[in-house]
Protein backbone atom coordinates (compact mmCIF):
# COMPACT_ATOMS: atom_id res chain seq x y z
CA UNK A 1 0.00 0.00 0.00
CA UNK A 2 1.76 3.19 -1.10
CA UNK A 3 0.37 5.77 1.25
CA UNK A 4 2.33 8.55 -0.38
CA UNK A 5 2.05 8.56 -4.18
CA UNK A 6 5.41 9.02 -5.89
CA UNK A 7 5.35 12.32 -7.83
CA UNK A 8 8.99 12.25 -8.92
CA UNK A 9 11.56 9.62 -7.93
CA UNK A 10 12.44 10.55 -4.36
CA UNK A 11 9.55 12.95 -3.84
CA UNK A 12 6.27 11.74 -2.44
CA UNK A 13 2.94 13.46 -2.30
CA UNK A 14 2.92 13.44 1.49
CA UNK A 15 5.67 14.40 3.92
CA UNK A 16 7.20 12.07 6.48
CA UNK A 17 4.97 13.28 9.29
CA UNK A 18 1.88 13.18 7.06
CA UNK A 19 2.59 9.56 6.14
CA UNK A 20 3.12 8.71 9.81
CA UNK A 21 -0.25 10.27 10.58
CA UNK A 22 -1.86 8.24 7.77
CA UNK A 23 -0.34 5.08 9.18
CA UNK A 24 -1.93 5.84 12.53
CA UNK A 25 1.37 5.81 14.40
CA UNK A 26 -0.17 8.32 16.86
CA UNK A 27 -2.20 5.35 18.11
CA UNK A 28 0.96 3.68 19.21
CA UNK A 29 2.52 0.52 17.81
CA UNK A 30 1.46 -2.91 19.03
CA UNK A 31 4.02 -4.91 20.89
CA UNK A 32 3.64 -8.65 20.35
CA UNK A 33 5.16 -11.00 22.86
CA UNK A 34 7.68 -13.23 21.18
CA UNK A 35 7.07 -16.87 22.18
CA UNK A 36 9.67 -17.98 24.72
CA UNK A 37 12.57 -19.59 22.85
CA UNK A 38 14.09 -22.59 24.53
CA UNK A 39 17.80 -21.89 24.89
CA UNK A 40 19.76 -24.61 23.08
CA UNK A 41 22.36 -26.23 25.30
CA UNK A 42 26.01 -25.55 24.52
CA UNK A 43 27.07 -29.17 24.62
CA UNK A 44 25.42 -32.42 23.64
CA UNK A 45 26.19 -35.87 25.01
CA UNK A 46 27.03 -38.30 22.22
CA UNK A 47 27.90 -42.00 22.38
CA UNK A 48 31.14 -42.96 20.67
CA UNK A 49 31.72 -46.44 19.25
CA UNK A 50 34.81 -48.48 19.91
CA UNK A 51 36.17 -50.08 23.08
CA UNK A 52 38.82 -47.67 24.24
CA UNK A 53 37.08 -44.38 23.46
CA UNK A 54 35.37 -43.74 26.76
CA UNK A 55 31.81 -44.60 25.63
CA UNK A 56 30.29 -41.12 26.00
CA UNK A 57 31.60 -37.63 25.34
CA UNK A 58 30.36 -34.04 25.68
CA UNK A 59 30.41 -32.58 22.17
CA UNK A 60 29.88 -28.81 21.64
CA UNK A 61 26.73 -28.05 19.58
CA UNK A 62 28.35 -25.36 17.45
CA UNK A 63 32.08 -25.39 16.85
CA UNK A 64 34.25 -22.31 16.28
CA UNK A 65 35.30 -21.92 12.63
CA UNK A 66 38.62 -23.50 11.60
CA UNK A 67 39.66 -20.50 9.54
CA UNK A 68 39.22 -16.75 9.84
CA UNK A 69 39.95 -14.90 6.62
CA UNK A 70 42.26 -11.85 6.72
CA UNK A 71 39.94 -9.71 4.61
CA UNK A 72 36.22 -9.32 5.06
CA UNK A 73 34.62 -11.68 2.63
CA UNK A 74 31.36 -10.65 1.00
CA UNK A 75 28.60 -13.07 1.93
CA UNK A 76 26.40 -13.98 -1.02
CA UNK A 77 22.76 -13.03 -0.53
CA UNK A 78 20.47 -15.86 0.48
CA UNK A 79 18.15 -16.73 -2.36
CA UNK A 80 14.44 -16.46 -1.59
CA UNK A 81 13.45 -18.54 -4.57
CA UNK A 82 11.64 -21.77 -3.77
CA UNK A 83 11.38 -24.62 -6.22
CA UNK A 84 7.75 -25.69 -6.62
CA UNK A 85 6.53 -28.82 -8.41
CA UNK A 86 5.42 -27.94 -11.94
CA UNK A 87 1.77 -27.15 -12.50
CA UNK A 88 -0.20 -29.78 -14.38
CA UNK A 89 -1.19 -28.69 -17.88
CA UNK A 90 -4.94 -28.15 -18.14
CA UNK A 91 -5.09 -30.62 -21.03
CA UNK A 92 -3.91 -33.46 -18.76
CA UNK A 93 -6.63 -35.02 -16.58
CA UNK A 94 -6.84 -38.52 -15.10
CA UNK A 95 -7.51 -40.94 -17.96
CA UNK A 96 -5.96 -38.79 -20.68
CA UNK A 97 -4.02 -40.70 -23.32
CA UNK A 98 -0.49 -39.28 -23.48
CA UNK A 99 2.16 -39.72 -26.15
CA UNK A 100 5.63 -40.24 -24.69
CA UNK A 101 8.26 -38.38 -26.66
CA UNK A 102 11.49 -39.42 -24.96
CA UNK A 103 12.97 -42.19 -22.91
CA UNK A 104 12.82 -45.96 -23.22
CA UNK A 105 9.17 -45.90 -24.25
CA UNK A 106 9.25 -43.02 -26.73
CA UNK A 107 6.41 -43.11 -29.22
CA UNK A 108 4.14 -45.13 -26.94
CA UNK A 109 0.62 -44.05 -26.14
CA UNK A 110 -0.11 -44.45 -22.43
CA UNK A 111 -2.86 -43.67 -19.95
CA UNK A 112 -2.29 -40.93 -17.36
CA UNK A 113 -3.25 -41.86 -13.80
CA UNK A 114 -2.24 -39.04 -11.48
CA UNK A 115 0.39 -36.44 -10.73
CA UNK A 116 2.83 -37.29 -7.92
CA UNK A 117 4.14 -34.86 -5.31
CA UNK A 118 7.39 -34.36 -7.21
CA UNK A 119 5.39 -33.12 -10.19
CA UNK A 120 6.06 -36.20 -12.31
CA UNK A 121 3.13 -37.95 -13.94
CA UNK A 122 2.19 -41.51 -12.94
CA UNK A 123 1.42 -43.42 -16.09
CA UNK A 124 0.54 -46.98 -17.09
CA UNK A 125 0.54 -48.61 -20.57
CA UNK A 126 -1.40 -50.72 -19.51
CA UNK A 127 1.45 -53.23 -19.35
CA UNK A 128 -0.50 -55.98 -21.11
CA UNK A 129 -1.33 -53.66 -24.00
CA UNK A 130 1.94 -51.97 -24.85
CA UNK A 131 4.55 -53.03 -22.30
CA UNK A 132 4.70 -49.75 -20.41
CA UNK A 133 4.52 -50.49 -16.65
CA UNK A 134 3.48 -48.16 -13.84
CA UNK A 135 6.03 -45.47 -14.44
CA UNK A 136 6.86 -41.88 -13.71
CA UNK A 137 7.13 -39.53 -16.65
CA UNK A 138 7.99 -35.86 -16.97
CA UNK A 139 5.23 -33.60 -18.22
CA UNK A 140 7.64 -31.77 -20.50
CA UNK A 141 8.29 -34.85 -22.62
CA UNK A 142 4.69 -35.70 -23.25
CA UNK A 143 1.98 -34.75 -25.75
CA UNK A 144 -1.49 -34.74 -24.21
CA UNK A 145 -4.13 -36.00 -26.64
CA UNK A 146 -7.79 -35.13 -26.33
CA UNK A 147 -8.71 -38.81 -25.96
CA UNK A 148 -9.74 -39.67 -22.41
CA UNK A 149 -10.31 -43.12 -20.92
CA UNK A 150 -13.07 -43.17 -18.34
CA UNK A 151 -11.32 -43.95 -15.05
CA UNK A 152 -14.48 -44.12 -12.97
CA UNK A 153 -14.13 -46.57 -10.12
CA UNK A 154 -10.38 -46.85 -10.27
CA UNK A 155 -8.67 -46.87 -6.91
CA UNK A 156 -4.99 -46.06 -6.94
CA UNK A 157 -3.32 -47.49 -3.86
CA UNK A 158 -1.74 -45.05 -1.45
CA UNK A 159 1.58 -46.84 -1.99
CA UNK A 160 1.99 -45.25 -5.40
CA UNK A 161 4.13 -42.24 -4.59
CA UNK A 162 7.66 -41.07 -5.39
CA UNK A 163 9.19 -43.30 -2.70
CA UNK A 164 7.68 -46.39 -4.40
CA UNK A 165 9.70 -45.65 -7.54
CA UNK A 166 12.95 -44.62 -5.85
CA UNK A 167 15.93 -46.67 -7.02
CA UNK A 168 17.45 -48.91 -4.33
CA UNK A 169 21.01 -47.77 -3.46
CA UNK A 170 23.70 -49.84 -5.26
CA UNK A 171 25.78 -52.21 -3.15
CA UNK A 172 29.08 -50.33 -3.30
CA UNK A 173 31.54 -50.05 -6.20
CA UNK A 174 33.51 -53.12 -7.18
CA UNK A 175 37.24 -52.85 -7.63
CA UNK A 176 38.68 -53.10 -11.14
CA UNK A 177 40.21 -56.47 -10.34
CA UNK A 178 36.91 -58.01 -9.34
CA UNK A 179 35.23 -56.73 -12.46
CA UNK A 180 38.04 -58.06 -14.62
CA UNK A 181 37.62 -61.52 -13.19
CA UNK A 182 33.89 -61.54 -13.79
CA UNK A 183 34.58 -62.40 -17.45
CA UNK A 184 32.00 -60.02 -18.74
CA UNK A 185 29.11 -62.10 -17.40
CA UNK A 186 25.87 -60.14 -17.24
CA UNK A 187 25.20 -58.74 -13.78
CA UNK A 188 22.64 -60.73 -11.87
CA UNK A 189 19.28 -59.02 -12.10
CA UNK A 190 17.00 -59.18 -9.13
CA UNK A 191 13.63 -60.68 -10.05
CA UNK A 192 10.82 -58.15 -10.29
CA UNK A 193 9.12 -58.00 -6.87
CA UNK A 194 5.85 -59.91 -6.83
CA UNK A 195 4.04 -57.17 -4.92
CA UNK A 196 4.82 -54.65 -7.66
CA UNK A 197 3.64 -57.06 -10.34
CA UNK A 198 0.41 -57.60 -8.41
CA UNK A 199 -0.17 -53.87 -8.08
CA UNK A 200 0.42 -53.46 -11.80
CA UNK A 201 -2.18 -56.15 -12.58
CA UNK A 202 -4.68 -54.57 -10.21
CA UNK A 203 -4.42 -51.13 -11.81
CA UNK A 204 -4.38 -52.53 -15.33
CA UNK A 205 -7.48 -54.69 -14.91
CA UNK A 206 -9.68 -51.62 -14.33
CA UNK A 207 -7.93 -49.78 -17.16
CA UNK A 208 -8.40 -52.61 -19.63
CA UNK A 209 -12.14 -52.93 -18.92
CA UNK A 210 -12.49 -49.19 -19.51
CA UNK A 211 -10.43 -49.38 -22.71
CA UNK A 212 -12.50 -52.24 -24.13
CA UNK A 213 -15.58 -50.00 -24.09
CA UNK A 214 -14.28 -47.86 -26.96
CA UNK A 215 -13.77 -49.44 -30.36
CA UNK A 216 -10.17 -49.60 -31.58
CA UNK A 217 -8.84 -47.93 -28.41
CA UNK A 218 -6.86 -51.05 -27.54
CA UNK A 219 -5.27 -51.13 -30.98
CA UNK A 220 -4.59 -47.42 -30.69
CA UNK A 221 -2.73 -47.82 -27.42
CA UNK A 222 -0.81 -50.75 -28.83
CA UNK A 223 0.45 -48.80 -31.82
CA UNK A 224 3.30 -46.28 -31.82
CA UNK A 225 3.04 -42.63 -32.69
CA UNK A 226 5.20 -40.98 -35.30
CA UNK A 227 5.31 -38.03 -37.68
CA UNK A 228 5.12 -38.62 -41.40
CA UNK A 229 5.90 -36.28 -44.27
CA UNK A 230 3.74 -33.18 -44.28
CA UNK A 231 2.73 -33.54 -40.64
CA UNK A 232 3.75 -30.60 -38.51
CA UNK A 233 2.90 -30.77 -34.78
CA UNK A 234 2.07 -27.08 -34.57
CA UNK A 235 -0.58 -27.59 -37.26
CA UNK A 236 -2.02 -30.78 -35.85
CA UNK A 237 -4.76 -31.33 -33.33
CA UNK A 238 -3.88 -34.03 -30.81
CA UNK B 1 -23.97 -7.20 -66.64
CA UNK B 2 -21.25 -7.73 -69.25
CA UNK B 3 -22.18 -7.61 -72.95
CA UNK B 4 -22.09 -10.66 -75.26
CA UNK B 5 -23.30 -12.89 -72.49
CA UNK B 6 -24.03 -15.90 -74.64
CA UNK B 7 -20.49 -16.53 -75.83
CA UNK B 8 -18.58 -14.91 -72.96
CA UNK B 9 -15.91 -16.99 -71.28
CA UNK B 10 -16.89 -15.34 -68.03
CA UNK B 11 -19.78 -16.93 -66.20
CA UNK B 12 -19.61 -15.41 -62.73
CA UNK B 13 -19.94 -11.66 -62.53
CA UNK B 14 -19.51 -9.12 -59.79
CA UNK B 15 -23.10 -7.89 -59.58
CA UNK B 16 -25.68 -6.99 -57.01
CA UNK B 17 -26.97 -10.25 -55.61
CA UNK B 18 -23.89 -12.35 -56.36
CA UNK B 19 -23.15 -14.77 -53.55
CA UNK B 20 -19.51 -14.55 -52.55
CA UNK B 21 -17.18 -16.53 -50.30
CA UNK B 22 -15.06 -14.36 -48.04
CA UNK B 23 -11.42 -15.38 -48.23
CA UNK B 24 -9.64 -13.51 -45.45
CA UNK B 25 -10.42 -11.47 -42.41
CA UNK B 26 -12.39 -12.38 -39.29
CA UNK B 27 -15.30 -13.68 -41.41
CA UNK B 28 -13.10 -15.86 -43.62
CA UNK B 29 -14.86 -18.92 -44.93
CA UNK B 30 -18.35 -17.42 -44.70
CA UNK B 31 -20.90 -16.73 -47.41
CA UNK B 32 -22.25 -13.24 -48.13
CA UNK B 33 -24.15 -11.36 -50.83
CA UNK B 34 -22.98 -8.32 -52.80
CA UNK B 35 -25.44 -5.58 -51.92
CA UNK B 36 -23.82 -2.72 -53.80
CA UNK B 37 -20.73 -1.99 -55.87
CA UNK B 38 -18.61 0.85 -54.54
CA UNK B 39 -15.86 1.11 -57.16
CA UNK B 40 -13.48 -1.00 -59.21
CA UNK B 41 -11.93 -2.45 -56.07
CA UNK B 42 -14.63 -2.74 -53.43
CA UNK B 43 -18.20 -3.80 -52.90
CA UNK B 44 -20.64 -3.63 -50.03
CA UNK B 45 -21.11 -7.18 -48.82
CA UNK B 46 -23.78 -8.41 -46.40
CA UNK B 47 -24.58 -11.83 -44.93
CA UNK B 48 -27.50 -11.56 -42.52
CA UNK B 49 -28.06 -15.32 -42.30
CA UNK B 50 -24.37 -16.18 -41.93
CA UNK B 51 -23.49 -13.48 -39.34
CA UNK B 52 -21.43 -11.37 -41.73
CA UNK B 53 -21.97 -7.71 -40.83
CA UNK B 54 -22.72 -5.32 -43.66
CA UNK B 55 -19.40 -3.84 -44.71
CA UNK B 56 -17.23 -2.86 -47.64
CA UNK B 57 -15.00 -5.66 -48.87
CA UNK B 58 -12.24 -5.60 -51.50
CA UNK B 59 -12.71 -8.05 -54.40
CA UNK B 60 -9.22 -9.26 -53.66
CA UNK B 61 -10.56 -10.99 -50.57
CA UNK B 62 -13.69 -12.40 -52.23
CA UNK B 63 -14.33 -15.44 -54.36
CA UNK B 64 -17.39 -15.42 -56.61
CA UNK B 65 -19.67 -18.43 -56.42
CA UNK B 66 -22.02 -19.64 -59.16
CA UNK B 67 -25.00 -18.68 -56.96
CA UNK B 68 -26.72 -15.31 -57.23
CA UNK B 69 -29.94 -13.65 -56.08
CA UNK B 70 -31.47 -12.25 -59.23
CA UNK B 71 -34.33 -10.24 -57.79
CA UNK B 72 -32.25 -8.01 -55.51
CA UNK B 73 -32.41 -4.26 -56.17
CA UNK B 74 -29.18 -2.25 -55.83
CA UNK B 75 -28.40 -1.13 -52.31
CA UNK B 76 -30.77 -3.53 -50.56
CA UNK B 77 -30.44 -3.47 -46.86
CA UNK B 78 -29.95 -6.47 -44.58
CA UNK B 79 -33.64 -7.15 -44.09
CA UNK B 80 -34.41 -7.39 -47.79
CA UNK B 81 -31.36 -9.56 -48.41
CA UNK B 82 -32.35 -11.89 -45.59
CA UNK B 83 -35.86 -12.26 -47.00
CA UNK B 84 -34.58 -13.05 -50.47
CA UNK B 85 -31.99 -15.52 -49.16
CA UNK B 86 -34.64 -17.39 -47.23
CA UNK B 87 -37.02 -17.35 -50.19
CA UNK B 88 -34.48 -18.83 -52.58
CA UNK B 89 -32.97 -21.05 -49.87
CA UNK B 90 -29.50 -20.05 -51.07
CA UNK B 91 -27.67 -21.27 -47.98
CA UNK B 92 -28.93 -24.85 -48.40
CA UNK B 93 -28.00 -24.74 -52.10
CA UNK B 94 -24.51 -23.63 -51.10
CA UNK B 95 -24.12 -26.25 -48.39
CA UNK B 96 -25.17 -28.98 -50.81
CA UNK B 97 -22.73 -27.89 -53.48
CA UNK B 98 -19.63 -30.01 -54.03
CA UNK B 99 -17.46 -26.98 -53.36
CA UNK B 100 -18.88 -26.42 -49.88
CA UNK B 101 -18.76 -30.15 -49.13
CA UNK B 102 -15.09 -30.33 -50.08
CA UNK B 103 -14.33 -27.33 -47.88
CA UNK B 104 -16.13 -28.96 -44.98
CA UNK B 105 -14.26 -32.24 -45.51
CA UNK B 106 -10.88 -30.48 -45.53
CA UNK B 107 -11.75 -28.61 -42.36
CA UNK B 108 -12.82 -31.83 -40.69
CA UNK B 109 -9.64 -33.59 -41.71
CA UNK B 110 -7.54 -30.76 -40.27
CA UNK B 111 -9.40 -30.93 -36.97
CA UNK B 112 -9.05 -34.67 -36.40
CA UNK B 113 -7.43 -35.66 -33.18
CA UNK B 114 -4.76 -38.37 -32.86
CA UNK B 115 -7.23 -41.20 -32.14
CA UNK B 116 -9.43 -40.12 -35.05
CA UNK B 117 -6.45 -40.14 -37.40
CA UNK B 118 -5.65 -43.66 -36.23
CA UNK B 119 -9.25 -44.80 -36.84
CA UNK B 120 -9.14 -43.25 -40.33
CA UNK B 121 -5.99 -45.23 -41.04
CA UNK B 122 -7.73 -48.46 -39.99
CA UNK B 123 -10.72 -47.68 -42.22
CA UNK B 124 -8.49 -46.92 -45.18
CA UNK B 125 -6.71 -50.22 -44.69
CA UNK B 126 -10.05 -52.02 -44.62
CA UNK B 127 -11.17 -50.31 -47.82
CA UNK B 128 -7.87 -51.01 -49.55
CA UNK B 129 -8.11 -54.63 -48.53
CA UNK B 130 -11.66 -54.92 -49.87
CA UNK B 131 -10.73 -53.31 -53.17
CA UNK B 132 -7.72 -55.56 -53.69
CA UNK B 133 -9.72 -58.68 -52.86
CA UNK B 134 -12.41 -57.64 -55.32
CA UNK B 135 -9.86 -57.00 -58.04
CA UNK B 136 -8.24 -60.39 -57.45
CA UNK B 137 -11.62 -62.10 -57.50
CA UNK B 138 -12.56 -60.42 -60.79
CA UNK B 139 -9.27 -61.46 -62.39
CA UNK B 140 -9.68 -65.08 -61.38
From TrEMBL, chain A:
Stored CDD domains: KOW_RPL6 (cd13156)
GO cellular component, one term: ribosome
Keywords: Ribonucleoprotein, Ribosomal protein
Pfam families xrefs: Ribosomal_L6e, Ribosomal_L6e_N
Domain Large ribosomal subunit protein uL6 N-terminal: 6-46
Cross-referenced InterPro entries: 60S_ribosomal_eL6, Rib_uL2_dom2, Ribosomal_eL6_KOW, Ribosomal_uL6_N, Translation_prot_SH3-like_sf
Region described as Disordered: 1-65, 176-195
Top-level lineage group: Eukaryota
Keyword Ribosomal protein set for record: yes
Protein family membership: Belongs to the eukaryotic ribosomal protein eL6 family.
Protein name as it appears in the record: 60S ribosomal protein L6
Organism of this sequence: Lentinula boryana
UniProtKB/TrEMBL annotation, chain B:
Domain KOW: 13-40
Record's keyword annotation contains Zinc: no
UniProt KW Ribosomal protein keyword: yes
Entries under SMART domains matching the protein: KOW
Alphabetically ordered keywords of this record: Ribonucleoprotein, Ribosomal protein
GO cellular component: ribosome
CDD domains in the cross-refs: eL14
Gene3D superfamilies with a match to the protein in the record: 2.30.30.30, 6.10.250.2270
Pfam hit, one: KOW
Family named by the database record: Belongs to the eukaryotic ribosomal protein eL14 family.
Protein name listed in UniProt: Ribosomal protein L14-domain-containing protein
UniProt source species: Lentinula boryana
Amino acid sequence: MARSKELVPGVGRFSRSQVAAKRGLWKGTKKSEKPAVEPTSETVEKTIGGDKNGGKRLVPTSKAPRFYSAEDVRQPKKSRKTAKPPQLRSSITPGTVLILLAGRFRGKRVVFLKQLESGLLLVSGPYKVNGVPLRRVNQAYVIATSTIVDLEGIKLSEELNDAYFAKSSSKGAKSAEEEFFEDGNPKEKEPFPASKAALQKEVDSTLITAIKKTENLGKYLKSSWGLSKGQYPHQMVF
Amino acid sequence: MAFALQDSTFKRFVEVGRVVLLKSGPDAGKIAVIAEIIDHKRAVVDGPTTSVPRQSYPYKHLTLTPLALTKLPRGSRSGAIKKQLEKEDTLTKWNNSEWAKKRAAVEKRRGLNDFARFSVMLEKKKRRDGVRKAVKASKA
